Amino acid sequence: MKRTQDRSSSTAPDVAGTATLVDVAQAAGVSLATASRAFNSPALVREGTAQRVLEAARQLSFRPNLLGSKLRAQQSRMIGVMLPTLENAVFAECWRGIEDAALAAGYSLMLVTSAYDPARERERIEYLLRHRVDGMVLTVADAAAAPCSTSWMPKACPMCWPTTRPPRTASAILFRWTTAAAPAKGCKR
Q1: Do 72-181 and 18-64 fall under one CATH topology?
Q2: What pTM, to 2 d.p., does this model score?
Q3: Residue 1 confidence (pLDDT)
Q4: How far apart, in whole angstroms, are the C-alpha atoms of residue 24 and residue 20?
Q5: Beta bridge partner(s), residue 82
Q6: Does domain 18-64 have CATH number 1.10.260.40?
Q7: Domain-by-domain residue ranges, the chain?
Q8: What are 124-138's pLDDT values in tens digits?
Q9: What distance in Å separates the CA atoms of residue 28 and residue 39, rounded to the nearest whole number?
Q10: Hey, what CATH class is 72-181 in?
Q11: 32-to-54, 62, 102, 110, 156 alpha-carbon distances in Å
C-alpha cells in the first residue's frame, strides 16, 4: 500500500514544484497566520520574525498566490486595456502612460488588441470581463456601435475612452486631446 504524505506537515515543495505558505510557516517556525501577515501586513509582524519568514520563503522558492487573495477580496486589481494596435507609436505611448499610472496605483494591466474590428472588439471585451478586470480603458472603432453601449455590458465596470466619445448609456472618463497635447513642444495653443 502506497503511503501518502500529509501536506500540512510537509516542508518539501508541492507536486507542482512550488512551496506553499504552510511550508514557509513551518520552515520559519511560525504559525500560518503569522507567515501570512509577514507578506500581507508586514508592519504587524516583528522585524526578526518577518525576516525569518522571508528567508524561509526565499529558500523554498515560495511566491505568494495573488489569485487566491484576489478571489477573497473580490477584486482583481487589474485593468483591461484594449488598443487597436501597438504598431502605431501613439498607442504604444498611450500604453506606457497607462502602465505607469496603473503600477503607481497598485494595479496590473491586461492588454488586448482589436485592429478596429468590431467583432474582435466584442470578443476581446468579453475576454477582459471573464478575467474580472476592475475597469477598462477602451479604444474602439465606433463607440456608438461598441458592445459596451448595450445592456450586455455590466454597469459596475468603469470604462475610460481615450480616443472616442462613448455612447450616452456608458459612464466613462474622457480625454480632452487638445488640452493634453498643449504642453507638447512647439504647440502654440
Answers
A1: no
A2: 0.61
A3: 40
A4: 7
A5: 112, 138
A6: yes
A7: 18-64, 72-181
A8: 988 998 888 988 888
A9: 13
A10: alpha beta
A11: 13, 14, 31, 32, 35
